[in-house]
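Hi Q.,

Before the meeting this afternoon, I wanted you to have the adenosine monophosphate prediction in hand. No need to reply - just skim if you have a minute. The sequence and ligand are here:
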Amino acid sequence: MIPPAVTPADIEKAIRNVPDFPKPGIQFKDITPVLADARLFAGAIHQLTKDFKPGMVDAVVGIDARGFIFAAAAALHLQAGFIPVRKKGKLPYQTHEESYDLEYGSNSIAIHIDAVAPGSRVLLIDDLLATGGTAAAAAALLKKVGAEILEISFLIELGFLDGRKKLAGYPVRSIVCY
Ligand code: AMP
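Predicted structure with the ligand bound:
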């Protein structure tokens, strides 16, 4: 892929804010206009992977569900494997699970116990960093399988929620920050 001349500002302009979705008070960041634009999609993958070259990363890990889109494309770009972290109950083989708190209740995510060989160098990617609970739980799963996390990357960060605090100790990158 030839690096397209796409800036974070170009990507930010395409992100659609949808108020009160999926419930009142949430400002949902809709990334579908970024995905629908070939130049912006390629630019987003370029931005998310720009510190890495093929051979530096064994696998890119994506978080269910929008994280899959970016992580799978990044994996192809870096000639690395793709590993899904899924919502509990969706992976068919034996799993490790991690729970994390939501505003109301909790959520669980899972990874196959043999998803990566111990010592594998991985990038962890999701579409958006909010409170950091999801990414921290995914990082804990990767620790359980013995992966080495090189970086945790997001297309969007809601900086005012301070989610990075939960990811202390890991390099964290975001392309567009609100
Ligand atoms: P958190 O665990 O609070 O960091 O939430 C991050 C996860 O929730 C990501 O997988 C996002 O896809 C999703 N998410 C949280 N807040 C938003 C938002 N305002 N717009 C879009 N997705 C969101």
